[in-house]
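Before relying on records like the one below, remember that each one covers exactly one chain. Contacts with other chains, cofactors or solvent are not represented anywhere in the record.
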Amino acid sequence: MKKIITVAVVSLAITACSNMSNTEQRTLSGASIGAAAGAVGTAIFHGNPLWGAVGGAAVGAASGYVYDAYKKEQAAEYNSGYKAGKNSQKSQSTTN
């Protein structure tokens, strides 16, 4: 019975991601990876896998959100440099 529930939850989670923003996808991915790692880690060391999954999901979601902010900052810096280069080319071609 647990396997059926697990398969159903995983299937629902995979199909529910189609209309998400990049931020939502990265946060959810981080939470999923963190939950799996936390559950496995606590199961190996004889802890409660449920609490490991909860803690791992929280840390993973925060990490995914921070990673998204970093990627957005990188994209903004790239776009800023790209626009500056385009403007520089335009000003050089009009003066020549």
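The two ends are 76 Å apart (CA to CA).
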